[in-house]
Each structure stands twice: as structure tokens, then as C-alpha cells.
Design brief:
The chain is mainly beta. It contains no helices and 4 strands. It has one domain. Strands 1-2-3-4 form a 4-stranded antiparallel beta sheet, with no helix packed on it. The chain is globular, with a radius of gyration of 12 Å.
Length: 60
């Protein structure tokens, strides 16, 4: 069983060359990506910054 989420999505960025690749930044400083339009997500953050959140992302 998963515990309660302690963060929320604070920004979303879609890859311009592949609309199925979506990055989300969260209020807990993590970044996750899906490459299949949201079916599966992977945390790509090495270590979140404590007390920080992701407010903007740009995918090129």
C-alpha cells in the first residue's frame, strides 16, 4: 500500500518532438517523466532539494 502523497504537481512540460514524453515537477523538488503519455512514470531526480519546489521546466 502506498502512503499519502505529500507533494503536488507544480509544473508540466511536454517534449516538442514527442507529445507522449511529459515531464512534471513537484512541490517536493522532484522531477518525473513519462514516455508513453502517462502510462508509466519514472522519478529522474538524483536528490530533491530540501525545502524547494520545481516551478518551471523547458524541454528542448
Amino acid at each position: 500500500t502506498q502512503g499519502a502523497f505529500r507533494s503536488y504537481v507544480s509544473t508540466i512540460a511536454v517534449a516538442p518532438t514527442d507529445p507522449k514524453t511529459i515531464y512534471v515537477g513537484a512541490s517536493d523538488g522532484t522531477v518525473s517523466v513519462t514516455r508513453d503519455g502517462g502510462g508509466q512514470w519514472q522519478n529522474v531526480t538524483a536528490a530533491p532539494l530540501p525545502g524547494r519546489y520545481v516551478s518551471e521546466m523547458v524541454v528542448s
